[in-house]
Every structure is written in C-alpha cells, then in structure tokens.
Amino acid sequence: MTRLSNNFCIILASILVVSLACQNALAQVLDITEHGAVANGETDCSNALLAAFKEACASPTPSTILIPKGDFYVSQVILNGPCKSTIGIDLQGNLVAPTNPTNPDPKTDWFNIRKVDGLNVFGGGSMNGQGKTAWDKKLAGEKLNLMAMFSLAFVTNVDIRDVTFTQAKNTHVHFYGCKNVTFTKVTIDAPAESPNTDGIKMGVSSDIKILDSNLMSGDDCVAILHGTERLTVVNTKCGPGHGISVGSMGNTPDEKDISGIHIRNCTFIGTDNGVRIKTWQDKYAAIANDIRFEDIIMEDVINPIIIDQEYCPAANCGGKAPSKVKISKVAFNNIRGSSKTENAVKLICSQLEPCSDVEISDINLTFNGGKSISSCANVKPILGGVQIPQICGAPLGGKI
Ligand SMILES: *[C@@H]1O[C@H](CO)[C@@H](O)[C@H](O)[C@H]1NC(C)=O
Ligand SMILES: *[C@@H]1O[C@H](CO)[C@@H](O)[C@H](O)[C@H]1NC(C)=O
Ligand SMILES: *[C@@H]1O[C@H](CO)[C@@H](O)[C@H](O)[C@H]1NC(C)=O
Predict the structure, then answer these.
(1) In this model, does residue 317 exceed pLDDT 80?
(2) Which of 23, 194, 203, 232 has the fewest CB atoms within 10 Å of its CB?
(3) Separation of alpha carbons 216 and 197, rounded Å
C-alpha cells in the first residue's frame, strides 16, 4: 500500500469508530421525557417509563433509561424481563409515588423490576414513597395492606449506587430470588416513627453486598430473611431504626437456610437493636449458620447484641414452646460503645436447639458510662479478649 492510501484507511477507520460510538451513544440512552414523561410531579409517568424500558429491553446492546432532574409522578410500574441486554437506570431526578396508601394493583409493589439479568441503577436521584398518609393511618390503627417501594424479583447482577430511597409506605427496598446484588452509597431515609419502613429487606437471594451506605428508617435497617446466603454489609451506618436483623426465622414451613452473613465496620446510632438474630417460638424448623458481626460501634442502642429465640410479636406462639430453629457458628467480635439499657448482651437460645459455636470477643458496651450486664440461656459461648459486660457470668477478660 502507498503511504497515502494507508493514511486514508486510518482516517476512514477513525470516522467509522467515531460514528459507531455516536450511534451507540444515541441508541443507548432513553430519556423518559422523550417518551411522554413530564417533570411536574403530577402527570403519571408510568407509561413513559414502561415505554422506555420496553425499548431498552428489546435492544441487543446495553441501554440506559434516563430520568432527568425534576419530579416525576409514577402511579405504579412493573418492568418485566428477560431483556436482550443489560439495563441501566440513570436516576438523576426524583420518582414520586402517590400519597394514596393503596397501589393501583394492590397485590404488587410500587416500582417493580423482574427477571432482568444485568441492572445498574445510579445517578444521585431518589425514589420517594410519600408514606406520611399511610403511616398516619397505620398509627391510628387502620388495617392497611401496604406494599414495598422498590422491588426486585429474580433479578441478577445488580449494581445500585448513589441513590436515595425515602419515605416508603412500607419496606423501602425488597428483593427476592436475586443473585449478585450490590448497593454502594445508598441512602435510606425515613423517620424513626414511620411504622414498618424496613430499609433493605431480602430473602432467597445470594451474593449481596451493602457498602458505604446510610440507612435511616422506622424499622430494620437491613432485614435478612430466610434463604439469604453470602451477604456482606460493610462501612454502613444504621439508625434511627431497629438495627440489622437476621430473621425472624421459623415462622413458615420449609424456610431455606440463612448462611454466610458478615456485618463489618458498621455504626448503629440510637437504634432499638444493634445486631440481632431472631426466631419464632415453637412453629417451624430452620437453620441459621455462619454469621459474623465485627468491628461495630454502638451509640445509645437499646439491645446492642441480641439473639432472641423467643420472638413472639403476636402474643400467641404455642404456649412458650421452644423455637425449632438451629443457630450455629456465630461470632461477635470487637463491638464497642454505649447501651441504652443495662442488659447490653442477650443471648436467649432455644432449649430444644441450643445455639452452638458462638464466639464472643472484645466487647465493650457501657451503660450510662458504667457497668452493663448480660443474660444467657441455652448457650455456652467461647469467650476471648475484653468482655464488658461479663458474658454469661464469665469473669472479665476470659480467654478462648
Ligand atoms: C455482578 O454484577 C455486576 C453488575 O452487573 C457485574 O459487573 C459483575 O461482573 C457481577 N459479578 C459476577 C461474579 O458475576
Ligand atoms: C468504616 O466505615 C466508615 C464509614 O461508616 C468509613 O469512613 C471508614 O473508613 C471505615 N473503616 C475501615 C477500616 O474500613
Ligand atoms: C471500655 O469503654 C470505655 C468507654 O469508652 C472506656 O473508658 C474503657 O477504657 C474501655 N475499656 C476497655 C478495657 O477497653
């Protein structure tokens, strides 16, 4: 080839690459305002979202649904996969739910994504459940069947980062049947007095990470239900709320195991519980195994460390028959700070299925700047390092 034609080829190739890139960029971003959405907080944008999703879902290359800045009212939406490629949701603005406690389809959640493989949600925006009306009714004793706000079912390879879920009527984020789900720098924001507003709640899902997040709610910051495997929560703040809860377990037959739960470097501020494992009295058998809580700071937490196998919120749990749930291989390591009650460590295990292989080391939980106590049943923990309070009557500084 001559030098000239060589150069010519390079130029041609460059143009081709640039134009392909442009074409991709154009095809990839689907702005909901170009599908009928209006950022006035009133126009129902559900159909616009659905239309953008359908186009994205049919695309053989990855697409991103753009929700630009502004308030977009959404009555309810169900985005069903499977899709031909991965889906991005660039949430720069706010998606706003109705104030009405009942969804148009009352049997399902508000913002639903199902059966998608490869989902990225990002953009710094928020989903707002406008829960106040629902909370007020509930607190006034009205029976409401409230659904979750953002819900994933059978979605795999999910990355959710830098978004806020606020004021849900019920659970903020719920997922089920999911694999490989990561939350990074996610904010949950609901007041302490909002009933049942769990932060992130999951079941029958595996390989989950919650990183660098701030979870403020009226119920559990993280609720870990049966069938959760390999969950890591790191560098995350919890509070207000009810803490991080494994369970409740044993409420229904054939619950799948909970295992591989690792909570590390988290801070609990003013929560009802810190790290908790709870199982129903009586009822059904289940297994919780391999659960580690470490490097945790508690600030004014009512029950900083608690295993409660006598959970009975309904006041009718088989006449105090012991729980059939087996808890084993649990570690509480390096947990420090202040307890709001004197009894800072409660390890109440089942008479039928005593907890086994429970390790407790380096605990320093003070009550009013002074001594705290512990209570134990059906557990013989392996102790190490500092223990304030004394754990299960063991002397201070007991060793493994
Ligand atoms: C998990 O999901 C993320 C986000 O889709 C993806 O980038 C990553 O490769 C997945 N990891 C595995 C092990 O499949
Ligand atoms: C622990 O988490 C906090 C955020 O809550 C973070 O600032 C800090 O760097 C983390 N420490 C380690 C050792 O990862
Ligand atoms: C336990 O914590 C208190 C309050 O933070 C502190 O004054 C005390 O030195 C700690 N004790 C040990 C043994 O670490």
Answers:
(1) no
(2) 23
(3) 9
**DSSP labels for 87-151?**
EEEEE-SEEE--SSSS-SSTTS-SEEEES-EEEEEESS-EEE---HHHHHHHHTT----PPPSEE
**pLDDT one-digit tens code per residue, 186-234:** 999 999 999 999 999 999 999 999 999 999 999 999 999 999 999 999 9
Protein residue closest via CA to atom 2 of ligand 1? 157
pLDDT tens column, 252-303:
999 999 999 999 999 999 999 999 999 999 889 999 999 999 999 999 999 9
Report residue 75 as tokens: 């009555």
Helix, coil or strand: residue 34? helix
Contacts of 375 (CB under 8 A, 6+ apart): 343, 345, 346, 347, 348
Residue 163 burial (C-beta neighbours within 10 Å; 0-12, 13-18, 19+): buried
Collapsed DSSP state (helix, strand, coil) of residue 193: coil
Kindly state the tokens that stand for 270.
């003013």
Ligand 2 centroid to residue 159 C-alpha, Å: 21
Amino acid, single-letter form, for residue 382: I
How far is CA 324 from its chain centroid? 26
Asked if 174 is an active-site residue, the reply is no
Dihedral through CA 3, CA 5, CA 8, CA 10, nearest 10?
-70
CA–CA distances in Å: residue 314 to residues 206, 255, 280, 377: 30, 20, 10, 22
Question: Which residues are within 8 A (CB) of 198 and not within 5 positions of it... i.e. 6 or more apart?
Answer: 170, 171, 172, 174, 217, 219, 220, 221, 223
- Write the residue with the smallest CA distance to atom 14 of ligand 3: 364
Strand partners, 262: 232, 292
Chain-centre distance of CA 143, in angstroms? 25
The 10s digit of each residue's pLDDT in 64-93 is 999 999 999 999 999 999 999 999 999 999
Would you state the structure tokens that stand for residue 333, as one six-digit string? Answer: 């390591």
Structure tokens of 218?
């009226």
